[in-house]
Amino acid sequence: MAQLWGGRFTKETDQLVYNFNASISFDKKFYRQDMEGSIAHVKMLGKQGILTETEAKEIAAAIQDILQEVEAGTLEISHEYEDIHSFVEATLIERLGDTGKKLHTGRSRNDQVALDMRLFTRQEVLETDQLLEKLLHVILTIMEHNTDTYMPGFTHLQKAQPVTLAHHLGAYFEMFKRDRQRMEDIYRRMNYCPLGSGALAGTTYDLDRYDTAEQMGFEGPMLNSMDGVSDRDYLIEFLSALSTIMMHLSRFSEEVIIWNSNEYQFVEIDDAYSTGSSIMPQKKNPDIAELVRGKTGRVYGALLSLLTTMKGIPLAYNKDMQEDKELTFDAMDTVKGCLGLFTGMLSTMKFQKERMEASAKHGFTNATDAADYLVNHGVPFRDAHGIVGQIVLYCIEKKIAIDDMSLEELKAISPVFEEDIFDAVSMKTCVEKRLTIGAPGQEAMKKVIAIEKKYLSRD
Ligand code: ARG
């Protein structure tokens, strides 16, 4: 047991208490941020004359050494310390003696940990954004090549109207684009520095909080020291955005699983991204998509856990807040892993275009267009709906598609039909007539692709 705060205690901490309280096993994850924060702090103490310039330089250099040794693997972060802050300070004191003891002047672990977690999360926001960007590139490439790949669009998982693969994937493009916007937004809002908040009430030292904020790339200091040590909103926002990413990935995974099923065969997942069965030799399972879908639950869990942890905590810092880390780290890693794997799976997946197109031809996906044809020839929509309903019934009995009917058969149901009905209900017409922006028609789709290409080339 190695603690920073033994002074007012007369008894040793019980080992079980010590273990329960310690956080080094997980807060060592932000050792780099902890040391970068300490270097910024000590440089500012030197500039402000709170430490001498020599002391500040000596401490900053020693922390830099510790950092390099940890990165090189020559110095191990020992679990005998309570947390990463204690490890760094103790190692520093071992090396510099009394000078090392001055590092923590004007600082508390409360503002220190708030800073570390913020610095770490800020980087995670950027990395998640980069992974989303890669996924968007893959989606857009598939879209560009498939503006005329017809497939059924569904509602209630029932064939509804024909769309294209570009259009279907375009929906996911928009979702992941909004996810990126959420990253940008969270970054902007969280990028204020808690360091200098002290334990809760600032300090009596003449700290320059603007200086430390600037050294670490923050917009400025957080403007209330009690908020500085106890705000975890930014983590909740991030976990909420991560949950939304997982929800999108999970919906997409579900579609991949359906499309990959023997019944659909719309796609074939690459061998490198599928797994087999230990007993059934014919099996090629979509495990990656299933795992992504499955892991969505644990990311939601992290969000709900932190919301619940925070809801009853009075100002300012309370130890409950230490619980902000483990599940959040897990959620961060889970989402990054899922984004990377999903992108790989998607970029190697084969789309069985003929199967998709054949499927779009059946299931009366052109029934709305047949009704629209009648409307264009003066039949009120509600009547047209009824007429086409009869046609569908007739086709179901005869096991044929609308396109397979003869003009005589059609005319027997409504005399309004003429030869041009066949062109009007052909799949090509059904899709290509839909030209309002956002619709699947090729010309409309190409406009959207151009807009999104421009958006991606901004980065
Ligand atoms: N490990 C603690 C945490 O994660 C660091 C802050 C400790 N502060 C304190 N007053 N005990 O929240």
UniProtKB/TrEMBL annotation:
It comes from the Bacteria. Its EC number is 4.3.2.1. Keywords: Lyase. This is Argininosuccinate lyase. It comes from Petralouisia muris.
